[in-house]
Amino acid sequence: MTADTGLRTLLVGIDAACERVLEPLFAEGELPTLASIVSTGASGPLQSQVPPWTASAWPSLYTGMNPGKHGVFSFLTFEGYDWDVVNATDVRERTLWELLDRHGYRSVVVNAPVTHPPRSFDGALIPGYTAPEDPTCHPEGLLDDVRDSIGNYTVYPDDDSTDAYRRAIRSRGEAFRYLAERFDPDFGFLQFQATDSIFHRRPDDEAGIRALYREVDRQLAATIETCHPETIVVASDHGMGPYEGYEFRVNDFLRELGAVETVRGGRGMPTWSRARERSLKAGEETTRAGDGTTSDESGPGTLQRSMAALASVGLTSQRIGAALDRVGLADAVARRVPDALVSAGTEQVDFRNSAAYMRSRIECGIRLNLQGREPNGVVSESDYDDVRVDLMNELRALTAPDGEPVFEAVAPREAYFHGPESHRAVDIVTIPADYDHFLSTTLHGERFGQPTEPWNHKLEGFVAVAGETVDLREGIGHAHLCDVAPTVLSTFDVPADERMDGTVLPCVPYTGEQSYPRFENDESAATDDAVVERRLADLGYIE
């Protein structure tokens, strides 16, 4: 492709990019294109949000608003005690490309998380994370055209090999350039997710990580050469780094306080173990029961019923796993045991009869089972404030085995979330000290253990802005995730939404603000895709 598309602004999203990862690659000359953007533009750390995880952070970046306004707090959304994987119908604010559409600008968006099913605007969109493998695109039928043009395109890599990740990265760039030539956009958003996924799967694979970043750099170089953007913004949703603390089992702690009740035999929290369905047939479909558990369509098999029976008399999956771990067999057995079997024998949180619990570890917080809000609430509205304060005091006083505080902040949700969707947030926000402790929802019978994952998300990401109108003397200031959207709008001389929580970065001329009518979205579509759920579980986003 050689056509000059006249792209005005290109936003490149590199999931989990941060100075810790990038600086060694810059120093060794591995990323010439990214290094050139940094050397000719303004760059530095980009503070993420609470919680600093993909499904919530990217909507904050591309709406410029905190989750209390856009409505996505985790990979999961909860309705009573039921749950689903989030999708675009949960994003209740306008995106960058929708605002640009109101001002007559056309956009091409490739691989942006939480954009399925896509909403209509002038341009083209291929959804990213939380979309099904064959997603509906905008315009409809677009994915077939892309595959006809560039070959295979998948939302998720074919497997967890470096080659599969590289193919996914390459296909993002090729798809974007095909769409840019076809639609001649003013704005482009090209997102790369594999740079995060490899750290969840193989954080010690330095050669693999380098290979993925080199491929990102190659795709960025080819896109710049093809599209000639006037301004380039590179941004990540969060950073990445090693856990240097402990795994804190929040629900075990709450059980000690008398807030969590448990149930055995598969009727409580949906639980995925380290056995990631490896012994199940490829593509086997699962359905979710009304209480949030998973089961085969034909009902639990003999082994599942046996495990449930054992769990009901105290021989739970956790106890079996602990015994196997003591003799060095836990990993070998986990590779051969299907998750449905482990879940059937797991002691789980009984949400209906508990006063408080952690539902999703990446929400970074605790929910109260409030009367009038939850179907079977046990905490009365009159007791809500007292229960919440008591729990916050217990959590603030909590120390890890090394004597250091577990949390750097424990606060009511209104300290972090504001807006019409804040009621969807956790009641108590719990921020681990330096994000060095792994918060787990799974019951183990003890408060602390070794982190399930050696690396995970950190608060500090990365941003760079380059172009002829970028004022290098002003720099990026104290850049925040929510600053990216108003900054991109300013490169089009388009005023930001006055309700945005971010501001234009100092290096870009300020265009001002205006009032936009709030996006009205009464639609709510279920994701209900077993492949998506397994993929998120495999990366540790769902326990």
Automatic annotation (TrEMBL):
Stretches with biased composition (Polar residues): 292-302
Entry-linked InterPro entries: Alkaline_phosphatase_core_sf (IPR017850), Phosphodiest/P_Trfase (IPR002591)
Biased composition (Basic and acidic residues): 274-288
Domain of life: Archaea
Region (Disordered): 267-302
Entry protein name: Type I phosphodiesterase/nucleotide pyrophosphatase
Lineage: Archaea, Methanobacteriati, Methanobacteriota, Stenosarchaea group, Halobacteria
